[in-house]
DNA sequence: TATTGTTATACTCTATAACTATA
DNA sequence: TATAGTTATAGAGTATAACAATA
């Protein structure tokens, strides 16, 4: 049974290293993970209310207020009036915010390339297939254990 | 080039799900990730000074003071006098702390089993080999980019 | 003089609850 | 009455810097 543990530990280690690498990249860009998450959503959704951001990122409205405050202060986004609902604001990327999101996108692709280039096709396919199995297994397990 | 991206995104998603699952388990045990990390080191090293804990976990001495305060308050560890150095304290697992660390160990093994059982041997081997390659690649990349 | 740990201070992410303005 | 966002308050993790006691 314990033959699995080595692979599992490698997986955890990979997650840690990946996370450190990502944080390092974000720091270079003047971002934290949470703020980058907001930027990412805005990049994909376009101008968005804070309510929607809170829902998709799954944090409190209060927290979004703070994150948007920080992103405004550092020049990544602005708050624009909502055209039809005067209670709401539309959080909108500045030019700097857009450029930064593009840079994140490029780094994301670059990292994927660096990671998997040099892996032979057969092995790559096995790896991907294994990943899929693991994800399905784990999601089942999580769903079963969390409610 | 972009055939890699799907696999990479799966990997990131797996890391996220894994992290959520782990946090859920830790909450059940009355721990946070940072406190669990301290517990884990104590479990493997035995009674340890705060200075050493700060070094292995790579956080400030101030932070260790806070984490140990919290673990003392919640009954996982005690501070014992160091036998030869009166400046230092030995952070020591209580019985509850030891039992909790054992439980973490069991859950760790159980999760590995659940994840990989049902994966055919050939596929498992490919997966593990792929993981190794990826880890080596990524560590090279991180080492190259971080200094 | 160097080291261990604490106190002081500050920043980030997170939450709940009370409140304002608007729907 | 319900919703969008803010203010108030609190707790966790993180850091640096100044300081105490001890080596």
Oligomer type = homodimer
Average pLDDT number of chain A: 91
Q: What's the name of the CATH homologous superfamily of the largest domain in chain A?
A: Winged helix-like DNA-binding domain superfamily/Winged helix DNA-binding domain
Structural class of chain A: mainly alpha
* CATH classification class of the largest domain in chain A: Mainly Alpha
How many separate domains of chain A?
3
How many strand units of chain A? Answer: 3
CATH topology of the largest domain in chain A, what is it called? Answer: Arc Repressor Mutant, subunit A
What's the CATH architecture name of the largest domain in chain A? Orthogonal Bundle
Largest beta-sheet details of chain A: 3 strands, antiparallel
Helix content of chain A: over 70%
Strand order of the largest sheet of chain A: 1-3-2
Low-pLDDT runs of chain A: none
Give the count of helical stretches of chain A: 6
Radius of gyration of chain A: 19 Å
Fraction of residues in β-strands of chain A: 5-15%
Question: What characteristic shape of chain A results from the CA principal axes?
Answer: elongated
* SSE series of chain A: HHEHHEEHH
Q: What's the end-to-end separation of chain A, in Å?
A: 28 Å
């Amino acid at each position: 049974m314990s033959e699995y543990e080595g692979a599992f530990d490698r997986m955890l280690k990979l997650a840690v290293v990946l996370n450190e690498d990502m944080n390092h990249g974000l720091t270079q860009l003047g971002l934290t993970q949470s703020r980058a998450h907001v930027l990412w959503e805005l990049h994909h959704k376009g101008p968005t209310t804070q309510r929607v951001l809170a829902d998709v990122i799954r944090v409190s409205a209060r927290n979004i207020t703070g994150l948007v405050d920080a992103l405004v202060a550092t020049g990544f986004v602005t708050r624009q009036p909502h055209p039809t609902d005067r209670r709401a604001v539309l959080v909108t990327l500045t030019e700097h915010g857009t450029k930064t999101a593009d840079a994140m996108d490029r780094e994301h692709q670059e990292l994927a390339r660096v990671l998997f280039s040099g892996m032979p096709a057969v092995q790559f396919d096995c790896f991907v297939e294994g990943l899929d199995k693991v994800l399905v297994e784990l999601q089942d397990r999580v769903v079963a254990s969390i409610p």
